[in-house]
Amino acid sequence: MSDEMAAAATGPASGPGPEPGPEPGAGVGTADAGAVPMGGGAEMRVGMATDAEPAGAPELPVTIELLHDVELKVEVVLGRARLPLRDLLALRPGSTIELDRTRNSPVDVLVNGTLFARGDIVVIDDAELGVQIDTVVGAEGARQGRPA
């Protein structure tokens, strides 16, 4: 431990002037790794779990239900195309872009950019479109089928 860190551990430095900052790499791999300096010697703890929880603090059960309200970005990919910039700039209303899928090919359902499932486009109440899931892709298939 450096002299500055030892002095900081025993109390505030004597004398006027700003306190020296931590050495490069200080706090890495220690219990203070999650401390954020607040000025004036105060610290704020960020995301650190410690054994010193307040007495009588209720312990929350760790279950999947805690994540039920987390919103995820879900995208349905009908197909993809690569275009040279000149072709992209030439697009006008009424232009057609040829996709890499055929008419009856399943669409990809991406969750936060990762392939999650494949399915077919369906019409709901003669007005809206939806996806009927045919296959949920496992973790191994999601890595292989990840969009480029």
Walk me through this protein's architecture.
This protein has 148 residues and is of the alpha+beta class. The protein has two domains: 1-9 and 20-48, no CATH class; 65-144, Surface presentation of antigens (SPOA). It is 13% helix and 24% strand. The protein contains three helices and six strands. The protein has helices at residues 3-10, 85-89, 139-144, and strands spanning 35-37, 43-45, 74-77, 107-111, 114-124, 128-136. The chain has a four-stranded antiparallel beta sheet. The longest helix has 8 residues, at 3-10. The chain is elongated and about 70 Å long. The relative contact order is 0.10. The model is unreliable at 1-15 and 21-38 (pLDDT under 50).
Task: Please render the helix and strand layout as text.
Layout (H helix, E strand, L loop, with lengths): L2 H8 L24 E3 L5 E3 L28 E4 L7 H5 L17 E5 L2 E11 L3 E9 L2 H6 L4
Antiparallel strand pairs: 1-2, 3-4, 4-5, 5-6
Quick take:
Helix content is 13%, strand content 24%. With 148 residues, the protein is of the alpha+beta class.
Number of domains: 2
Estimated share of beta-strand residues: 15-25%
Shape: elongated
Secondary structural class: alpha+beta
Specify Rg, calculated over alpha carbons: 28 Å
Features:
2 domains, two-stranded antiparallel ribbon, 148 residues, alpha+beta, disordered N terminus, Surface presentation of antigens (SPOA), elongated, single chain, 3 helices, four-stranded antiparallel beta sheet
